[in-house]
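Troubleshooting log. The previous structure file for this entry was overwritten by mistake, so regenerating from the original sequence record. Sequence copied from the archived sheet and checked twice against the printout by T.R.
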Amino acid sequence: MLHTADTTVRTLVRTSDASALSLARSDDEPPLTIPRDPAREAARRELSKRMYHENDPSWFQRALDAFWDWVGKLFNAASAATPGGALGLVVVIVAVLAVLGALWWRLGAPRRQPTSAAALFDDRPRSAAEHRAAAEAHAAQGHWNQAVQERMRAIVRSLEERTLLDIRPGRTADEAAAEAGRTLPSHADRLGTAARDFDDVTYGGRAATEQSYHRITELDRALERTRPVLASSSHSAAHNARQGAAE
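Regenerated output below.
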């Protein structure tokens, strides 16, 4: 469209010049000279009217065309630099995508590590029964993140109520699992896993599943049935073992 407008401008200018020459050659009238610049400006004003630009592409279309032109030039430059030309470039791109897909499938989504571990409980104290009820309510609605969080809090609060853990504000899930594992050694690994699930959901951006909630629920019930290994019992057992060996 711009090429057509320029052509029209040149045509109008040439027409103006021809008219000036014909007027100059007339014997009946005095010579009349029309400057080229005013004629050109008049032609431009005429062509700036809206009716000449109704079919011009929009700014979005012009930007899109410029983008695809840039992509085409980039692709051509990459093809020229890649052995095998365009086919070689396609093979390289497919290979890179395959490697990235394999890494994603093998490693999963990137995990965000918490900058610092926050406290396990909020400011409002609740009993283990209240945390369990909240966990079951969240599980009934399919809110597995909140269900896992509340069940872990129920485990720690229950251990505090049984005096297997001292009540300490600001305790983290990892600290609670480590301390409880010393009193309940048969469940130390499962306590550590539950603490990691809690951290992944709360700070790591991971989504809990129904299976993870059932796993931590089974741990909660198992801990209720497990008798703790107290320090005095361990000392007595070790003393009896040494005494038996001496006899």
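The two ends are 110 Å apart (CA to CA). Archived copy saved in two places this time.
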